[in-house]
Design a protein that fits this description.
- It contains four helices and no strands.
- It has one domain.
- The chain is globular.
- By secondary structure, it is mainly alpha-helical.
- The termini are close together.
- The model has no long low-confidence stretch (mean pLDDT about 95).
Length: about 60
């Protein structure tokens, strides 16, 4: 994922799905220790719902 796409993803998560900065910070800290796709990390740690996870992957399909 390019840095531009990554920035747009963060914006989408915060603006469209109302994911808090604190939740994103938690996911990013876990991602440093256990690299993986950010949407999956958010879901695995209970920071987003399954429906939100589907919305994220639907959004990613439109931008990639």
């Amino acid at each position: 994922m390019s840095s531009s796409t990554y920035s747009r993803l963060i914006h989408f998560l915060q603006e469209d799905l109302s994911i808090s900065a604190a939740s994103l910070a938690v996911a990013l800290r876990h991602r440093e220790q256990d690299p993986g796709p950010l949407p999956m990390i958010l879901w695995q740690y209970g920071l987003i719902t399954m429906e939100q996870l589907e919305q994220i992957y639907d959004w990613l399909e439109t931008v990639v």
